[in-house]
Amino acid sequence: MVVVLCFPGTNCERDMEYVYREILHQETLILWHQETSLPKDTELVVIPGGFSYGDYLRSGAIARFAPIMKSVIAYANNGGIILGICNGFQILTEARLLPGALKRNERLLFISKTQKLKVVSTNNKFLSSYGKNQQISLPIAHADGSYYVDSKTLQEMRENSQILLEYVHNPNGSIESIAGVCNKDKNIFGLMPHPERAIEEILGNSDGLSMLKGLLGAKK
User: What positions carry a catalytic annotation?
Assistant: First the structure.
């Protein structure tokens, strides 16, 4: 089962449900943040985009303490596969499930456009069907998407192939143009671009579909 979390202010849960249920034909459940446990047959947890709790305090900072997150953290620590997109990425960094932090965009602008990206590492389930250095296009829509991490951790991430995606022509001031990362064990993934908004040609392209498909059946 694919479980899609929903917090007050989440706005991409239906898009994600559509991808997994209607396109990829997976049993899919939207799970409210006040639940305290994940279904026993969970194969993938997705934390979708939006503005959880209105982005008060910091993007993702309040959602990190929602009741469901204890179960999500336990699931992650047991090798469960987790994907966080945009606000979901912010929540994963706040929960310390992914390194780094997402800060306000350079020039303090909200950015909404289709963005070119470069695939940096394919040594993971998320991007295994892409070619290294392949360029793809995905929509972005965020105000707090500038990725930051300290230099020591950045070097470790490079050595462990944890940098997954980089922006072509950095739109938001992210360190080294980083757009997506994973953890050392490669079971937790986060990115600012929205692959669920690029899954059918009617949407402009389908560059994001293989990312979402690649995580199915990926649990260690």
Answer: 86, 194, 196
